[in-house]
Amino acid sequence: MKSIIIIVLALTAAGGGWWYWKQSRPQEVKYQTGAVTRGDVTQVVSATGQLNPVLNVTVGSQISGNIAKLFADYNSIVKANEVVAELDPAPYEATVHQAIANVAYAKAALELAQLTADRKAELVKEHAAAQADLDTAVANLHQAQATLQIQQANQETAQINLDHCTIASPIDGIVISRSVDVGETVAASLNAPVLFTIANDLRKMQIDASVAEGDVGQLEIGQAVNFNVDAYPTRTFHGTVAQVRNSPSTVQNVVTYDTVVSVNNDDQKLKPGMTANLFIVIAERPDVLKLPNAALRFHPSDSDGTPAGGAESTPRPHERHDGSHTIYILPAGEKKPAPVQVHLGISDGIYTEVLDGLHEGDVVVESELENNSSGGQGGGFGMRRPF
Length: 387
Known about the structure:
The protein has 4 helices and 20 strands. It has helices at about 1-25, 90-125, 130-165, 215; strands spanning about 30-35, 35-55, 55-60, 65-70, 75-80, 85, 165-170, 175-180, 185, 195-200, 205-210, 225-230, 235-250, 255-265, 275-290, 325-330, 340-345, 350-355, 365-370, 380-385.
């Protein structure tokens, strides 16, 4: 029995010693790496916007009335001065007739006032009437003349209102919106009611995009723009920056600037109101050396596992005063990363252009892999977030 206890104690001591020896043994650090490759790098500014016709005209009514006829509908092609709607003209025709009658009445009153003034003038010459009677007659004549002018103006106004019963398109284009139906009453007491919205040409469109203030300084007229819309998720459309407006827009303390992008829509796949996701090309570098952006944020750890720059190391590229950056590579046959100084160019958010300091095929370190063999249940290595 004692021999069994001795054997168990010996095995336990041996196991404990082996475990202590393993824990005190330095752990080999593994790294997540990437390669310096050659390819294209395109720097872009992202934005969202809405597609609109270049010229968008609302057709309204200057007078109130009932819609008697409609000559255009959604997607109708119209020409300039082509009649698109007609209001019931009956009330305005009656007003014109009344105005004509009032003008005739004013003309008759003017003739009578003219005859009376002439008669009074003869009587005054013959000393058969007082000068005051002549003055009154002349004043009545002038009043009759003014009344005739007022009635003629009223007739012109009535005729203009009658003409406005016929509503025509101001431009050549296509109807993209119709807001009324036959029999509907439109009231123009305060604002002109909108009957139609007409776009001049949907083959030429524009995007009104909102660009953040941090990116607007990189925009220039003529820059290429790639964008897509939800209606065609697999297709990329193209445009050009046409205007960067100086008027800011602030929404929830975020300042943006309206950037107008001109778009060719010959196949008319794009429709007004579509939301566009834009990528404005700021710079392009074809067939250049590039490295993964994760390598720009890597810091090697000290022996105790903390970042070399401290626990609060900045997660930004390690830029020096001369404009170079510190990148860590893993030379062939080596187990520790070695720092190199490189100069960088543009970035597309995933890769960054390498101007000098590295060669194609160099292995750059992106992050450390933690050795979990002594800890968790799964063992092996886990990725440590790059600092």
